[in-house]
Amino acid sequence: MYKSLLLDIDGVIVRDRLLMEHVKDNCVRYVAAKLPHCKNPHETNRVLHLGYGHTARGLANAFQMDTSDFNEKVYDKRVLDHLAEVIYGTEFQLEAKEISEFTKKGWNVTLFTNAPSVWGGRVARAISDQVHLRCPGDNIMESPLKPEARAYMDFSKVQSHVFVDDCMKNLVTAKFL
Fold it and tell me: If 41 and its partner were Cys, which of 23, 32, 33, 119 is the partner (CB 3.0–4.6 Å)?
């Protein structure tokens, strides 16, 4: 039997509150820079993320903006350095070892995220070279994102998955596929 484990990154594998706040703060700063007259960029970021599945996609669709620099601005050197501190820390390394054990037992382990490869790739490599990564491509406007059904199509040839995500709507989509 083919065993597949799909794991979200943010909120599941990477749960460091300060790191998640750091990413969110960068998103809010990005919204503020793109919408300089916005009175509440925090709330605007939240609404764009909820409504479009991704802040960059929301800005592009709602305001017809070029957001091709989103990953570079949000996942900047400071955030990536902060991520490195977390993934090379004791707590993450213990969990990474446990996840790696699944691959040794014949499981296909895939990190399934809406975060870019610059983020997801570092997390995957910190776990094992046997862990796969499924994330959007560089063009966030055309890449399928969770919870869109087409984001899950790569997994449709396998009938059984264990899917761990911190967002219920992502799990509901998977259930109906």
Answer: 32
